[in-house]
Write a structure and sequence with these properties.
The complex is a heterodimer of chains A (114) and B (118). Chain A is mainly beta and 114 residues long. Chain A has strands at 4-6, 10-13, 19-25, 31-38, 42-49, 56-57, 64-70, 73-78, 87-94, 104-105, 109-113. In chain A, the strands form 2 sheets. In chain A, strands 2, 4, 5, 6, 9, 10 and 11 form a 7-stranded mixed sheet that branches. In chain A, strand 7 (64-70) and strand 8 (73-78) form a beta hairpin. The termini of chain B are far apart. Classes of the chains: A mainly beta (114), B mainly beta (118).
């Protein structure tokens, strides 16, 4: 079974803090993704990576950056957290990004910025 | 602007009856559609998918129907069971570049919360 783990289930940070969300997958997948889930909006893609040290912007990259130094690990960074970044953050990985490849998700990190 | 829309935020159904979840999309270039299921405190898990060249795909109690002319797909769960109570996300894939195999983008709907009553 594919396992995608996220470093924290719940996180509370103050406005202006730098926040790191970590994601690790154990299936040697090439591709990794960061989404945020908000009520009424579904899942929106923030960034994705299809190889080590490679990254691509998703639909809502503003205010975020990412790092992929190792194949199994993909980090999401909030340089200066703001209250509108309070959300559920979901990491996913997939073997490929072609039509038939499904994405495997981690359990999510509920981030609250106060 | 959401290209994948799930207009019903919630659905309540009696155990043993059929659950029908609907999804509409606006971009005719989507070529693959997926349904994900999400329990509270867990990440979404893949449920079933359908290619745009088909109009039906069945997997046990789950069937997905695709109507390309109407840009509409639906998920049928028969019979519904209490364990089916979850949030269901419709998602669609589109190829956004001609050469790079990584040029696929996945767009999600807002989700439908299904409650199966015993």
């Amino acid at each position: 079974d594919v396992k995608v783990t996220q470093s924290s289930r719940y996180l509370v940070k103050r406005t202006g803090e730098k926040v790191f969300l970590e994601c690790v997958q154990d299936m040697d997948h090439e591709n990794m993704f960061w989404y945020r889930q908000d009520p009424g909006l579904g899942l929106r893609l923030i960034y994705f990576s299809y190889d080590v040290k490679m990254k691509e912007k998703g639909d809502i990259p503003e205010g975020y950056s990412v790092s992929r130094e190792k194949k199994e690990r993909f980090s999401l960074i909030l340089e200066s957290a703001s209250t509108n970044q309070t959300s559920m953050y979901l990491c996913a990985s997939s073997e490929g990004v072609g039509a038939a490849y499904e994405q495997y998700f981690g359990p999510g990190t509920r981030l609250t910025v106060t | 602007d959401q290209q994948v829309k799930q207009n019903s935020p919630s659905l309540s159904v009696q155990e043993g009856r059929i659950s029908i979840l609907n999804c509409d999309y606006t971009n005719s270039m989507f070529d693959y559609f997926l349904w994900y299921k999400k329990y509270p405190a867990e990440g979404p898990t893949f449920l079933i998918s359908i290619s745009s060249i088909k109009d039906k795909n069945e997997d046990g109690r789950f069937t997905v129907f695709l109507n390309k002319s109407a840009k509409h797909l639906s998920l049928h769960i028969v019979p519904s069971q209490p364990g089916d109570s979850a949030v269901y996300f419709c998602a669609a894939k589109i190829k956004i570049g001609p050469f790079n195999p990584n040029d696929y983008k996945l767009s999600f709907g807002a989700g439908t919360t299904v409650t199966v009553r015993a």
